[in-house]
Design a protein that fits this description.
single chain, FAD/NAD(P)-binding domain, seven-stranded mixed sheet, six-stranded mixed sheet, 15 helices, binds flavin-adenine dinucleotide
Length: 504
């Protein structure tokens, strides 16, 4: 095929964002897809924890899950444990999936709030299948059986970021994407329209296109530098601005969850993969020197470091528009929020999905770009609020960084959420905001925001009935968990090549 007449989309950058974008474009469009990346510049080299929606992305591409986990040395993730966020020694989990089961019009947590006040309830965690399984280091997936309910245990992945990009590169090239190795030196814009007409590499090669997707990472070469799109800085809400990442030997528990441990001026992640553990310390440079941050990280590893520490600097915030003219930024070039809830790769995925829905022809309609930007702003701001909640509602009194976080002024949208929850446990998920009611609930409660009242309809159940309902849910979860294999055993069996796979 000559490619003549086909829309030419140029993806600049070959990190996770670039290759996810290229893979989706070759799968779902007829466009001629060219990806330019520079090995000399490299990728950010982090981004290894995800949320369950990633499974939809991979499934959409037709990727075999077992092969994918084998190739990326991945593991399963049932949630994130937050250690020390509500004070030293505290511990809670934001587990994926439901908490308990609602009755009638009421969500489960309304009954739980009442039962808690009456001394009838256990910790919220007892009613989360994901959390109970995660803490027992178990994992399971159920095949749908006709006429039988399938337990709801959503999961995501941990994977090696470099291997994921490499996997998607193989996928994309096999499906027709063209990769060009080279360094972009200059972006050419049409003198009248201001649209990008071509990019020029430092060896004088020129790549023309109809549409350009900026996946150049923090530098934001096209949207930020060439088009001068402004940046909204959110540092006053999410003050961490540095991270050091280092992989270490696999030791300790092979947890089917990410761990986030609060430190003096930030927090540390732990992501278990098949071949290593990914670790990183995210911190605020105003309150901690790089050397101290590194010492803290190295002192808190499961095993020996496996590589030189990777020092990263960032500013939390977002480009004021992600789509300008014939350029869309996806990934770090569009902005960055804390990796605290593993949302960046998801934001890549949702930008891709949105772009595919709005795919322009050779002519770009400003109204479409505007709608894209409106939806993206909504999504980013709601995620931002959820992340801020973790910092603001911390219980680490007496530590200057954390004291400052507790004193910050919240965005109005978050203030409203906190007030509504405090007023009787009301949680509202607006439109398509990412985090669901159980997510907000677990973070509110885990960080010590527990309403003393509940929906009046929760009083409609007798004490015995309430106690029985709670016991049934708890016992059901315990029974299911007892029958699950360990995470490691499940993963080994699941990822075994087809001919060696035992039927699960
Ligand atoms: P990059 O990986 O930086 O890729 C940029 C690409 O652009 C590279 O290929 C580079 O070569 C190319 N490039 C740049 N300039 C040029 C040029 N002039 N010419 C040619 N090519 C060029 N996300 C999660 O979802 N989960 C996590 O757990 C998570 N943890 C994170 C931890 C930290 C500390 C940080 C900073 C980020 C984390 N993220 C996480 C975010 C995640 O890493 C990124 O969203 C993801 O890796 C996508 O990055 P990217 O592809 O946009 O940029």
């Amino acid at each position: 095929m000559s490619g003549e007449g086909r829309q030419a989309i140029v993806v600049v950058g070959g990190g996770t964002a670039g290759w996810m974008t290229a893979a989706a474009l070759v799968r779902f469009t007829q466009a001629k897809v060219t990806l330019v990346e520079s090995d000399a510049i490299g990728t950010v080299g982090v981004g290894e924890a995800t949320i369950p929606q990633i499974r939809l992305f991979n499934a959409g591409l037709g990727i075999d899950e077992a092969e994918f986990l084998r190739e990326t040395r991945g593991s399963f993730k049932l949630g994130i444990e937050f250690a020390g966020w509500n004070g030293e020694g505290s511990r809670y989990m934001h587990a994926f999936g439901h908490i308990g089961q609602g009755r009638g019009i009421l969500p489960f947590h309304q009954y739980w709030l009442r039962a808690r006040a009456e001394g009838l309830a256990k910790d919220l965690s007892a009613y989360s299948l994901n959390e109970v399984a995660a803490r027992a280091l178990k994992m399971q997936m159920w095949r749908q059986q006709p006429g039988q309910p399938t337990p709801d245990m959503p999961c995501a992945y941990h994977f090696d970021a470099g291997l994921y990009a490499a996997y998607l590169r193989r996928y994309s090239e096999a499906a027709g994407a063209t990769r060009i190795e080279g360094k972009v030196a200059r972006v050419e814009r049409h003198p009248d329209s201001g649209l990008i007409s071509a990019i020029h590499l430092d060896d004088d090669r020129t790549i023309e296109g109809d549409f350009f997707i900026d996946c150049t990472g923090f530098r934001s070469l096209l949207l930020g530098e060439a088009l001068g799109t402004g940046f909204d800085d959110w540092t006053h809400w999410l003050p961490c601005d540095r991270a050091i990442a280092v992989p270490c030997e696999t030791r300790g528990d092979f947890t089917p969850y990410t761990r986030s441990t609060a430190r003096k001026a930030g927090w540390q992640w732990r992501i278990p993969l098949q071949h290593r553990i990914g670790n990183g310390h995210v911190y605020c440079s105003e309150f901690m020197e790089d050397a101290e941050a590194l010492d803290i990280l190295l002192a808190n590893l499961d095993g020996k470091p496996q590589a030189e520490p990777n020092q990263l600097r960032f500013t939390t915030g977002t480009r004021q528009k992600h789509w300008v003219g014939n350029c869309l930024a996806i990934g770090l070039s569009a902005g960055f929020m804390e990796p605290l809830e593993s949302t960046s790769i998801h934001l890549i995925q949702s930008s891709i999905a949105r772009f595919l829905q709005m795919l322009p022809g050779k002519q770009v309609e400003p109204a479409i770009a505007e709608e894209f930007n409106r939806q993206a702003s909504f999504e980013w701001e709601r995620i931002r609020d959820f992340l801020i909640l973790h910092y603001w509602a911390n219980g680490r009194e007496g530590e200057p960084f954390w004291d400052l976080c507790r004193a910050m002024e919240l965005p109005d949208t978050l203030t409203a959420k906190v007030e509504q929850f405090r007023a009787g446990g009301y949680i509202h998920r607006e439109h398509e905001e990412l985090f669901t009611e159980p997510g907000w609930l677990q973070v509110f409660v885990g960080q010590g925001i527990v309403p003393e009242s509940w929906h009046p309809a929760a009083d409609g159940m007798g004490d015995d009935q309430l106690a029985e309902m709670l016991a049934q849910i708890e016992q059901g979860i315990e029974r299911l968990t007892a029958d699950m294999p360990g995470h490691i055993e499940f993963l080994r069996a699941y990822c075994a090549p087809q001919d060696q796979r035992k039927s699960a």
